[in-house]
Design brief:
The chain is globular and about 45 Å long. The protein contains eight helices and no strands. Helix 2 packs across helix 4 and helix 7 runs antiparallel to helix 8. The chain has a single domain, classed as Orthogonal Bundle (Globin-like). By secondary structure, it is mainly α. About 65% of the residues lie in helices and about 0% in strands. Pfam families: Bac_globin. This is Group II truncated hemoglobin. Its cofactor is heme.
């Protein structure tokens, strides 16, 4: 790759590397949950989690590691996951979805990511966030607009 070429995020481990590999992803996740604890607007989504966030941090970090093209740590440790199906246990409205994404946006902004990767990552995270929202609402018989 020449110095003028940008890595093609989403191909191979380019996204994983751009996120700082496992250490960088763990920093992102730690910042994400810290922000969630601090933002009053995120209380609606924080209330979906247990008080102790240790397991949630570990699961999100291991999921993101594989999702971004790194080692498939989540499947190795916790088995397969369907993001939409997993989240049907909670009532995830647009409010929770948006609060989750706002916390992630703030956490991403704290990372030493390039602007291009930060934008890419947030755009990619909107997809599973929306799928979790839709699956949660469909599980409750709520019509989707």
């Amino acid at each position: 790759m020449s110095l003028t070429q940008q890595p093609q995020f989403g191909v191979g481990d380019a996204s994983f590397q751009a996120a700082g590999a496992e250490a960088g992803i763990r920093r992102l996740v730690a910042d994400f949950y810290r922000i969630m604890d601090q933002k009053s607007a995120a209380a609606c989504v924080r209330n979906l989690y247990p008080e102790d966030l240790s397991l949630a941090r570990d699961k999100l970090a291991t999921f993101l590691t594989g999702w971004l093209g790194g080692p498939r740590r989540y499947a190795e440790r916790f088995g397969p996951i369907s993001i939409p199906q997993f989240h049907t246990r909670w009532n995830i409205t647009q409010t929770e979805r948006d609060a989750w994404l706002a916390c992630m946006q703030d956490a991403i902004a704290l990372q030493p990511y390039s602007a291009t990767f930060a934008d890419y990552l947030l755009a990619q995270l909107r997809i599973p966030a929306e799928r979790a929202h839709q699956a949660s609402q469909l599980a409750r018989g709520c019509p989707m607009s």
